[in-house]
């Protein structure tokens, strides 16, 4: 396996660089594309999910939780992806809607920290090249 983003030995809390390397077969150009796309889309998706939860829009809550779940699984953020999956499930079943805010607010904080890690990783990759 190529170590395209493992060379610095830096450990991240919210993203899994080994997973990203495996997913991309160490293709640095593809890794940069994936990370850049995530950095560019996460803020808007998180804001839209926040709005959906605050306004009680279960359809949008389900949609953006599903989208964010996939985004975090893709970058190796399994714990965050699992939490978004829970929000998606709760917004689908209807009976658990009242539980979403208790999950979401800490999750939002952690998702923003993951976004910061992605930016840091991109910067590290840029300075390494």
Automatic annotation (TrEMBL):
<dbReference type="Pfam" id="PF01627">
    <property type="entry name" value="Hpt"/>
</dbReference>
<feature type="modified residue" description="Phosphohistidine">
    <location>
        <position position="66"/>
    </location>
</feature>
<keyword id="KW-0597">Phosphoprotein</keyword>
<dbReference type="InterPro" id="IPR008207">
    <property type="entry name" value="Sig_transdc_His_kin_Hpt_dom"/>
</dbReference>
<dbReference type="InterPro" id="IPR036641">
    <property type="entry name" value="HPT_dom_sf"/>
</dbReference>
<protein>
    <recommendedName>
        <fullName>HPt domain-containing protein</fullName>
    </recommendedName>
</protein>
<feature type="domain" description="HPt">
    <location>
        <begin position="27"/>
        <end position="125"/>
    </location>
</feature>
